[in-house]
Design a protein that fits this description.
The protein has about 270 residues and is of the alpha/beta class. The chain has 2 domains: about 5-80, 60s Ribosomal Protein L30, Chain: A; about 85-270, Alpha/beta knot. The chain is about 35% helix and about 20% strand. α5 (about 90-100) runs parallel beside α8 and α6 runs parallel beside α10. It is elongated and about 60 Å long.
Length: about 270
């Protein structure tokens, strides 16, 4: 699947929104293809997008030849260097973000499935995470992730780095690393916390949730460097959740914790 295509109305709306943000760095647009039956009302909603790059009106059949994804009458081809979202690969960019925009970040280590990546990006952006960090060999944001995330790959800052570099930078900036451990026996671990009781966590709004690969989980070396691990108590007979669902649950719990600590920090500033 081409990594430089964005398909569907929700993804197009997200890109339009990103183009309107003066502080953002949206991907470059090479061509916007819209079907000859595309609704005029939605064209008006996408005025920033349609005014940014060249627009070509084609038949729905021609759009289907461009991509196997459900396009809903619109396909955007990005410039080759952009990818389906703006991914920052410079270490300085990640360090600056962690330093100047404290909050909850999500680190994906060796996630293999781009649909899982897209699902996680969607949850992270919707629930208020500050950014996503992709490490290790695995999936990267492309057209599939853009589609699954409903365009959130264009709205959430995404960084690419090595896991050890992230750990070093995070520790230097007083971030706490929280490893998601989906092993049912995890709750017996001394550092493992139930997502329903985060009171043992330090009063900090600088947290990084670390998610390992779908099959193997986190590397043992990375797991050992986490300050805490988090698990989700499962009450049914099914003893696992997919990476996207589990991450969304943990994000929701952690954002409540971060919001509370952020409010306390702000109220203590004279």
């Amino acid at each position: 699947m081409a990594q430089d295509l964005i398909c569907g109305r929700q993804a197009a709306r997200a890109l339009d929104q990103a183009l309107r943000d003066p502080s953002g760095s949206p991907p470059g647009i090479q061509m916007v293809y819209i079907s000859d039956s595309f609704p005029a009302k939605i064209k008006k909603e996408l005025s920033a997008l349609l005014g940014k790059g060249p627009v070509q009106t084609v038949s729905s059949a021609e759009l289907s030849r461009l991509t196997d994804l459900r396009h809903q009458g619109i396909v955007i081809r990005l410039k080759a260097s952009s990818g389906s979202g703006s991914v920052e690969s410079k270490e300085a960019g990640l360090k600056q973000a962690l330093d100047e925009k404290p909050g909850l970040y999500v680190m994906l280590d060796r996630i293999q499935d781009e649909q899982n990546l897209g699902s996680i990006v969607r949850s992270a952006e919707a629930l208020g995470a500050k950014g996503l960090i992709v490490t290790g060999k695995g999936a990267r944001p492309g057209s599939v992730a853009a589609r699954v995330s409903a365009g959130a790959t264009m709205l959430l800052p995404i960084f690419q780095s090595s896991s050890q570099s992230v750990v070093k930078t995070a520790k230097n900036l007083n971030y706490w690393l929280l490893g998601a451990d989906f092993d049912p026996s995890a709750e017996q671990h001394k550092k493992s916390l139930s997502c329903h009781d985060l009171s043992p966590l330090p009063d900090s709004n600088r947290l990084i949730l670390v998610i390992g690969s779908e099959g193997d989980g986190m590397k043992s070396s990375l797991l050992d460097q986490c300050d805490f691990t988090l698990h989700i108590p499962l009450r049914g007979r099914t003893q696992s959740l997919n990476a996207g669902v589990a991450t969304a649950i943990l994000l929701d719990r952690l954002m409540e914790f971060v919001d509370s600590n952020t409010a306390d920090i702000q109220s203590s500033v004279p």
